[in-house]
Amino acid sequence: MSAIGCAPRSGGVPGRPAHCRAAPSAVLLPPRRTRRRQLHMQINAAAVSAAGWQGQGQQPQQQKKEKESMGARILAGVLNLSSAPYSSYIPEPKTFLHHASAEAKQLWTVGVLLVMARASPPVRLAIAALLLAATVAALPARLWRSQLARLGGLCAVLFFFTIIGAEGVPPVLSDRSLPAAAAAAAAGSAGGAAAAAAGELPASMAQLGGPPYRYVVFHFWFITITKRSLNLALALTGLTFAALQSASLCLVTTPPEAMARAVGRALSPLGLLGLPVRELVLTTLLALRFMATAFEEARNLCLGLASRGINWRQQGLRGTVAICVGIASKLFSNLMARCDNIAVAMSARGFQGPTRHELRAASPPVPAHQRVQRLAADAGVLLMLAALAAAAYLVV
Amino acid sequence: MAQACTATAASAQRQPQRRRGISKKVLDRASLEVPRGSFHMLLGANGCGKSTLLRVLAGLFQPDVGQVHVDAPCGFVFQNPDHQVVMPTVAADVAFGLGRYQLAPAAVHAVVQHSLAQVRLAEYAERPTSSLSGGQKQRVAIAGALAECPQVLLLDELTTFLDYEDQENVLQCVRRIVDSSRRQQAQQVQQQAAAGAAGAGAAAATAGGQQVAHAAAEEAGVTALWVTHRLEELEYADSVSYMDGGRIAFSGSPAEMKAYMRRLGAPV
Predict the structure, then answer these.
(1) At what angle do helices A70-79 and A277-307 cross, to 10 degrees?
(2) Which of A265, A366, B77, B137 has the fewest CB atoms within 10 Å of its CB?
(3) Worst-scoring range by mean pLDDT, A310-319, A345-354, B18-27?
(4) Which of B17 and A348 is assigned the larger pLDDT?
(5) Which of A293, A344, A362 sits opposite B91 (nearest CB)?
(6) What residues contact residue A319 under an 8 Å CB cut-off, 6+ apart?
(7) Of A169-183, B122-136, B168-182, the least confident
(8) CB within 8 Å: A289 and B88
(9) Total Cβ atoms within 10 A of residue A141
């Protein structure tokens, strides 16, 4: 390979030939500290393999040992993420959601959130199942698997802590029992009334012929799960899942500029009241562009970190936190520098401010059959939303 | 041949340095003339002032003293495509520069498709820019500059961040753009000369044809000014200038430049 072929990409890691894959810091360690050097090399090799270079002669056991270090695990987690950022637009393969207009999808997203907030637990589960089915149908398997696995993990954690936390940890309250003297006086007068009431009232709801009811669903030691905590956990998890997944579906199946234009059209009445709609649309569009930029910058910094072969165990917690803070500040400064450069490029391309610059639609004129397809997809999306709203109203 | 851009910048100082209270002379009596319709390369070591001169030509920096003339419109492509690509999808980014013109949606679509076809990325119109390789992003940036039908393309070390294959692709792409604009210009000249011959007598037609040809030579398609520090890229150029210490030290054909570099001791 020529020297030019080895040139690094932007912010990336320079390519290394096969014979120089061992981390140099490992070689520089003194020979006396054999055990530490061995561990150091293991961590270096795993960090390098996380950066995309498969180390030579790596033993699975060594890799397992290396994963005990939290810093290396976090780093490997970031580097193992897909190079496409979460919720970025995917034009292919085209599904029915791609044909629906951005306005219909935005309405669907808001509608799903409202219905999810007001619905009963069975309808919430049905909405989550519908979103799952739409995700599986609209996205390629390599994307929906990782997306749903991460989102499922987040929702599971939320559900678990809410269900055991809502009732399991009782709040500290002031003592409501009467003072001893007052309790003795009250006991005399209330005793007769209580005996009379006990004779009249049934022992449970079952004696009245009503359905069996248990407020406490499960109790063990300090963990108490009640109907209330179950409902709360379901509502919180359902809302989180619906908010993230429906927004993700919307972004994945709609070009960002179509999304920004739809936001602009929705906000246009507010323009009469002096709201800077064009600025908001441009900001939305740049924010969608910068999602990918921020992701890429973070990934590049992590690649740079992995290529240094840091011994995370040697760093300890304080060292790991210091490195993370350093990386975070570097990320912000890099992003600011990028913003500056992009602003210069925008000026060089004739941008003179959002009021004097029209964001042009580069999409081709839509033929008649595609317009029919779009109408059908919009109708389908809105019908689904109406069905969900009706179900939420009927199933109490 | 007429010049697409001429610059005589006696002194230009970098703005950021001045902002910090430091003043450094970057250009020193730099004088450059680029023939219209040519692929001109500006060679020089790192820090010799190539990029500053290019920014002066683009109007991004103002020289303290000197004159600059560049045919309009003029497109600028930056070294790092990540700084140039502004919009989230390819077609939207190519159309970004058209935002200052009053154009119908069909016209915008046609221009974008034509520009993407010129850089051989027509099928990438809907792709998110974040999913492209470095070379593809660089070509999208070139397409964005081409969408405004520029007379001059100012290209600032486009191959710095690219691997060998992408470098070749980008260089060939620019070479193709210059050549195809030349061909189009030659066809137009022939058509106009033929029209002139059909409309007038033979003697008058010859004179008229010469006038048309002269007028066409004045507008000889796209001129590309390519800044680089890589000698191996010389084979793509029509003409070359060498910059050293903020001034143009030598201008000539690629063969003459190689001879000059050999005299300087470079292994060419």
Answers:
(1) 130
(2) A366
(3) B18-27
(4) A348
(5) A362
(6) none
(7) A169-183
(8) yes
(9) 8
Asked if residues B56 and B246 have their Cβ atoms less than 8 Å apart, the reply is: no
Three-class SS of residue A385? helix
Q: Among A74-83, A115-124, B44-53, B212-221, whose mean pLDDT is lowest?
A: B212-221
CB pairs under 8 A between A and B: 139
Under an 8 A CB cutoff, do A357 and B100 touch? yes
Cβ <8 Å between B130 and A293 = yes
Residue B65 CB burial class (10 angstroms; 0-12, 13-18, ≥19): exposed
Structure tokens belonging to residue B262 = 């050999």
Kindly report, residue by residue over B224-255, the tens digit of the pLDDT.
899 988 888 888 889 999 988 888 888 889 89
Query: Closest-CA residue in chain B for A335?
Result: B83
Return the residue of A nearest to B111 by Cα.
Answer: A362
pLDDT grade, residue B41 (50/70/90)?
very high
Q: Rounded distance, CA A346 to CA A360, Å? A: 15
Residue A44 C-alpha from the chain's centroid: 30
Residue B119: closest CA among B90, B99, B152: B90
CB contact at 8 A, A359 and A85: no
> Which residue bears the tokens 């037609």?
B205
Of A175-184, A208-217, B64-73, minimum mean pLDDT range: A175-184
**Would you tell me how many other CB atoms lie within 10 Å of the CB of residue B189?**
18
* Inter-chain touch A362–B162, beta carbons under 8 Å: no
Q: Return the number of other C-beta atoms located less than 10 Å from residue A199's C-beta.
A: 7
Among B15, B100, B148, B166, pick the best mutation site for testing chain A contact (most A Cβ within 10 A): B100
Which residues share a beta bridge with B243?
B44, B248
For B108-156, strand residue ranges (E) read: 152-156
- Dist CA A194 CA A201 (whole Å): 10
B231 inside 8 A of chain A by CB: no
Identify the residue whose tokens are 């079952």: A206
Q: Which residues of A touch B54 (CB under 8 A)?
A: none
User: pLDDT-based confidence at A396, cuts 50/70/90?
Assistant: low
Residues comprising chain B, all counted: 268
pTM listed for this prediction: 0.68
B243: CB partners within 8 A, 6+ apart: B30, B42, B43, B44, B48, B49, B50, B53, B249
Residue A29: pLDDT band with limits 50, 70, 90: very low
Nearest C-alpha of chain A: how many angstroms from B80?
8
Phi, psi angle pair for A19, to nearest 5°: -80, -10
- Residue of chain B whose alpha carbon sits nearest to that of A296: B130
Contacts for A63-70 with beta carbons within 8 Å, 24 or more apart?
Answer: A65/A39, A66/A42, A68/A313, A69/A43, A69/A312, A69/A313, A70/A312, A70/A320
